[in-house]
Records
---
Amino acid sequence: MRGPAVVLFAMWMTGCAHSAAERQAAEVAQAALTQRIIVQWHREQPDSSSVLRQKAQPVQAGDDVAGLLARLREALAKTGGVGIAAPQIGVSRRVFLIKHGTRPQGQPIVVTAYLNPELVWRSEAGVDDYEACLSVAAVGGKLNRAMQLRLRFTPESGGPPQEVELSDWDARIAQHELDHLDGMLYIDRVTGELTSIGEMRRLRDEGHRARGWIK
């Protein structure tokens, strides 16, 4: 006859198994949703035929900027990403969004639109970290990015161009999205082998805990 401790342990293990299965099912569903919403890069597809490999055009007079930004915000919210560029929804325009405040945790989350962004300056000092991409399914990898940069861009409210300095994680996101506007993917810069998305997240979060960005 099993004692109370054994029964409780068995119940706990069953609960853990259910939780793991539920998490895995949620991740599969999220991946499927992302691949429906976001333009995907395929190894066998000629790069010349993909909007992801084209240099995006500047925002022009007459463009439906409000409509484009609404689509980008919806896609970012549904996929749970930290940044998104217009080519990722099939629009060749120099526009991206960044979800600021995700690292370190505990900051206010603010999604900012950058129209016609230009890299004004970036630091010589760089840092290695792990990245993935909504347009490259199931994998991630490590690459070096500048720790700081300055962007010039047109705000979505209009008016003259503004400049902003970004550092650390936000600077990395900005560089990732700038690459999208120039027809590049993070896999073009990755050092070493690509790894599974699960392993990438584990390694990334391990490094972020060491930096005090997450608990």
---
Amino acid sequence: MRESTLSTSRSDRLPGYCSKGAFLSVITVPDQYGVNELGEVPADAHLPTSFGDFRIRVFHEENTGLDHVALTLGDMIGPDPVLVRVHSECLTGDAFGSLRCDCGAQLEAAMRQIHDVGWGCIIYLRQEGRGIGLHAKIQAYNLQDHGADTLDANLLLGHPADARDYGIASEILGAIGIEKVCLLTNNPDKVVQLVQYGANIVERMPLVVGVREQNLQYLTTKIDRMGHEIEDERLNGHRQ
């Protein structure tokens, strides 16, 4: 397992920060407010969304330089397991509504389900393209356009089929006080990794949404070659 360092502040590389992470006098507001200098500002704020009023917190991972997000609704303390979606970044699906995958649909469904339950957490990890990055992901799309499946495309580029690491997600769960998790996922490897890193996964709940003609082959590959547990009659008909 890799080591990772979790921080809730950005004290390097950003102008206006001293070496110890204290925020210098670079933010000012009009004099009538009586405020001319701010101390260290936490990356922690209220975030109203179309799926409810969430709280957003950013966690900086020193080893990778990436900022990850915990989006929470309600109280994270039991006694029931907290509904959690550990979601890896997918710019094309999450932001642009791509139909090549089910990522955007899964993120929306998870937020809606957490709102309906009344409490839960989205951990948004900056692991684009199953961990290979956006540039390589679009290269993989190019290979898929020429007939490769989603797994072989990564391998042909010299990358692992799935390079994601969920150690930081386990750390974030601990940092925000989630002790028992009901995990929204179709991916058994995600469960195995999180448990190995110390997360207490007491239940797994499938999240099968966004199945379309455009992503049937993608999803079928995830089932047949990557062990994902996805049950949908449209997929079953396609695999026949």
